[in-house]
Known about the structure:
Number of helices of chain A: 6
CATH architecture of the largest domain in chain A: Beta Barrel
CATH topology of the largest domain in chain B: MetI-like fold
Helix content of chain B: over 70%
CATH superfamily of the largest domain in chain B: MetI-like
Order of helices and strands of chain B: HHHHHHHHHHHHHHH
Largest sheet of chain B: none
Radius of gyration of chain A: 45 Å
CATH topology of the largest domain in chain A: Elongation Factor Tu (Ef-tu), domain 3
Strand content of chain B: under 5%
Distance between the termini of chain B: 34 Å
Structural class of chain B: mainly alpha
Distance between the termini of chain A: 61 Å
CATH architecture of the largest domain in chain B: Orthogonal Bundle
Domain Multidrug resistance protein MdtA-like C-terminal permuted SH3 (chain A): 306-368
Number of domains of chain A: 5
Largest sheet of chain A: 7 strands, antiparallel
Strand content of chain A: 35-45%
Protein name (chain A): RND transporter
Structural class of chain A: alpha+beta
GO molecular function (chain A): efflux transmembrane transporter activity
Strand order of the largest sheet of chain A: 3-16-13-14-15-12-4
Oligomer: heterodimer
Largest interface: A-B, 24 and 27 residues
CATH superfamily of the largest domain in chain A: Efflux pump adaptor protein, beta barrel domain
Keywords (chain A): Coiled coil
Pfam family, one (chain A): RND-MFP_C
Amino acid sequence: xxxxxxxxxxxxxxxxxxxxxxxxxxxxxxxxxxxxxxxxxxxxxxxxxxxxxxxxxxxxxxxxxxxxxxxxxxxxxxxxxxxxxxxxxxxxxxxxxxxxxxxxxxxxxxxxxxxxxxxxxxxxxxxxxxxxxxxxxxxxxxxxxxxxxxxxxxxxxxxxxxxxxxxxxxxxxxxxxxxxxxxxxxxxxxxxxxxxxxxxxxxxxxxxxxxxxxxxxxxxxxxxxxxxxxxxxxxxxxxxxxxxxxxxxxxxxxxxxxxxxxxxxxxxxxxxxxxxxxxxxxxxxxxxxxxxxxxxxxxxxxxxxxxxxxxxxxxxxxxxxxxxxxxxxxxxxxxxxxxxxxxxxxxxxxxxxxxxxxxxxxxxxxxxxxxxxxxxxxxxx
Amino acid sequence: xxxxxxxxxxxxxxxxxxxxxxxxxxxxxxxxxxxxxxxxxxxxxxxxxxxxxxxxxxxxxxxxxxxxxxxxxxxxxxxxxxxxxxxxxxxxxxxxxxxxxxxxxxxxxxxxxxxxxxxxxxxxxxxxxxxxxxxxxxxxxxxxxxxxxxxxxxxxxxxxxxxxxxxxxxxxxxxxxxxxxxxxxxxxxxxxxxxxxxxxxxxxxxxxxxxxxxxxxxxxxxxxxxxxxxxxxxxxxxxxxxxxxxxxxxxxxxxxxxxxxxxxxxxxxxxxxxxxxxxxxx
Lengths: 381, 282
């Protein structure tokens, strides 16, 4: 009887220990369950695609330029004696811009005049000689004297014409005058030296043609714009002063640099090849050109599309995809895994991306994850 | 000789029956050491010529994958396990306390209407859960206890079965003990705690085990009263095992079985004694 009781006691103790171990293990595992989940499962944040309009923001700053610049050349090769205008001066048509030193030309003219005089004196002398020869009456000598006189007369005519040309030239080239009404934008001439005939001595802007501003933006942004749209540009920083402008041209930026300092969406300035150059025309009389202008132009796409944040799209060799969280219901609660979903992309703006195909709008699209994700991986959400 | 022969035949028969009983248990345990993939493969009729499953006795690869997944990867399993514990432990202790006191009164005192009261208890006990389901539900709704553990614990504590079982056991205790104690000046509380409880230990143990097993395995009550998935016990999971994650079912079943096994092994002798003496068969 005692042996049986003893063996019973022993078994009870074993069962007690086993039960204690079992419940202890489960307690420990429960206590650390959150920690295990933290270790094993990446945490993700998600967003549901939403129907929204895209907002295209065209931003940039630059300098207002003149539409039409007229170069004024000085081909005389003479030294510059006086410069009458400065950059920014308003000049009328015909107004003297530069006076040239014509003294060399004047001396040359005087020389030519003296030569003419000499020729005329010589002609008089020949005429005297001819009269004397006519009295002596040698036929051939007379004939020679006549030819000599005729030749000299022709020389005198040539000389007279030369002097006349020189005079005209001296009069016209002594100054450089403005060909149009406008504003001086550049003065290249320097006092005391002659101007380079290949380079304009003065550049003038034709005010009647108005001002313009060029801005290079991302091609994507430009695709939403129409020629002829009116925008307002702000002038000289954010002083509140604005000016109306019209979008005149949209051209491929090509290898043009964004000289105007324009940039939009950050990328545009760095990749002008994919960009478009916008030309805005400004017809405002009290601007001279050269002002700093800028734009902050928000334009709605006008049609609501299914959009997701721009930076959640990934690429692999099969195309563009996003990760979506899929819920698997089970008796042990719901499990969440990430799945790739290939999508067809539409337009983008600075923050949003239109999805044309591949999502329905109810998915949970992963925006952030604590670790890099793989397809089918379980996540915490 | 005849006795020996009949004993041998009986032993063989019992052995065969024991084997038949143990086969599912063996499959549960051996399958719990298979990988999820192996289970999915074994329990698929695809590719078998006769549309029957060809179960394997021995795992291809003994793996603790199922246990690891359940314990470290599925918080819900642990939550459900502790939910079961939180439901069953109060019921077991509460019912034992209530039943022992009620049984004491019903077995040792004579008062008017005692037998009718006991008859009512038996009637209540004989009604299956499904019959009392709707009144139960309405009562719980009225008490505002739906979706709370109390909706299961309270009816569990005040169950008629415990009273019946312990009463049957206590009735076997001669009144002479009670009278002798009274002679020595013991009050009812002293008699109850010093005499009745120690003497009906096997009965109480049997009750504890039976109630524990009964409520550890309950499915209908939590399904009906608990809508919050975070309150539901493990028994529901095992009942829904076909809805997915089949590969984890066997390890879950083994883990589910263990507490009951511990309780049974710990109080096995008391249980047998209790059931025998109270004249109730489980």
